[in-house]
């Protein structure tokens, strides 16, 4: 085998990593993503005391340990999120979707929402705060947050955020109202926190066991999947929506045949999908 710099990935190992990450997560990493593997796997290589990513591949092939496999996949998972990300979506939720849901669900006064690919929880907690602000405090509200990565699920459950995280998107009035300072961090108060629970879930599995939801966030995740995985996921999301429920995708996301299951609506510049 040719001599390489410590973080230079041999071609056969690059293909192995592509295939492994896809098999374990559905994430597609193109042939030009060497820098991403090198950047994200370098800390894991150092933590394990290895000399290179190539040695990491050898170790992964040799023992197939579940923990090592999970660490590799989680290192390659993008967990970018922040409070009230994409303000146009939250504006549409508060001015159009929530008033409709409040009217349509007024008899049962129950609401179920799902934040798929929830990362460290800001999306789910943003929705909880929006619901409290808009008169749902007396309703039975359940917000489920899910993510493939166990590490970020644990952080989401803790609901404790650094200063730089609360500075991103969170209105100062909400910080004062819904958080308490805990040293150099901020702890979310119990009222919004009780509305949310988090689970580790792979979006490629059968999602019907989760039940149905009135509102689903599945933003900025399908961009990492291939067309077949996107199609299957959209089909399942439709099954998980109540009649007349709403789906929110990322602003840059498109999906073939989405009109088969959803009707596109635009509110104040935000595209939202309603279950047919």
SSE blueprint and pairings:
Blueprint: H1 11-25, H2 34-47, H3 53-63, H4 66-75, H5 87-104, E1 110-115, H6 122-133, E2 140-147, H7 150-158, E3 160-162, H8 163-166, H9 172-178, E4 179-182, E5 185-188, H10 190-193, E6 196-200, E7 213-218, H11 227-239, E8 241-249, E9 262-267, E10 270-275
Parallel strand pairs: 1-2, 1-7, 2-6, 7-8
Antiparallel strand pairs: 3-5, 4-5, 8-10, 9-10
Helix pairs in contact: 1-4
Tell me what you see in this structure.
The protein is α/β, with parallel strands linked by helices. It folds into two domains: 11-75, Chemotaxis Receptor Methyltransferase Cher, domain 1 (Orthogonal Bundle); 87-275, Vaccinia Virus protein VP39 (Rossmann fold). The protein contains eleven helices and ten strands. It has helices at residues 11-25, 34-47, 53-63, 66-75, 87-104, 122-133, 150-158, 163-166, 172-178, 190-193, 227-239; strands at residues 110-115, 140-147, 160-162, 179-182, 185-188, 196-200, 213-218, 241-249, 262-267, 270-275. A seven-stranded mixed beta sheet has the order 6-2-1-7-8-10-9. It has a three-stranded antiparallel beta sheet with strand order 3-5-4. Helix 1 (11-25) packs across helix 4. The radius of gyration is 20 Å and the shape is globular. The N and C termini lie far apart (56 Å). Residues 1-6 have low confidence and may be disordered.
């Amino acid at each position: 085998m040719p001599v390489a710099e410590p973080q230079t990935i041999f071609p056969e190992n690059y293909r192995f990593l592509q295939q492994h990450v896809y098999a374990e997560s559905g994430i597609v990493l193109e042939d030009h993503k060497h820098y991403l593997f090198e950047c994200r796997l370098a800390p894991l290589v150092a933590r394990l005391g290895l000399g290179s990513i190539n040695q990491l591949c050898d170790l992964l092939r040799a023992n197939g340990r579940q923990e090592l496999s999970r660490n590799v996949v989680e290192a390659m998972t993008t967990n970018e999120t922040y409070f009230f990300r994409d303000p146009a979506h939250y504006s549409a939720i508060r001015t159009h979707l929530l008033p409709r849901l409040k009217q349509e669900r007024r008899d049962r006064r129950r609401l179920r929402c799902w934040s798929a690919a929830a990362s460290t929880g800001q999306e789910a907690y943003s929705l909880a705060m929006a619901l409290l602000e808009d008169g749902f405090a007396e309703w039975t509200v359940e917000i489920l947050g899910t993510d493939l990565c166990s590490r970020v699920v644990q952080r989401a459950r803790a609901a404790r955020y650094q200063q730089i995280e609360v500075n991103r998107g969170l209105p100062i009035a909400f910080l004062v109202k819904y958080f308490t300072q805990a040293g150099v961090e901020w702890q979310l108060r119990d009222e919004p926190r009780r509305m949310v629970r988090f689970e580790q879930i792979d979006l490629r599995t059968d999602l019907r066991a989760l039940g149905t939801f009135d509102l689903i966030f599945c933003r900025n995740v399908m961009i990492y999947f291939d067309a077949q995985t996107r199609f299957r996921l959209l089909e399942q999301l439709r099954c998980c929506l109540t009649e007349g429920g709403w789906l929110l995708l990322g602003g840059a996301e498109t999906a073939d045949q989405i009109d088969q299951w959803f009707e596109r609506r635009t509110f104040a510049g935000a595209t939202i999908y309603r279950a047919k």
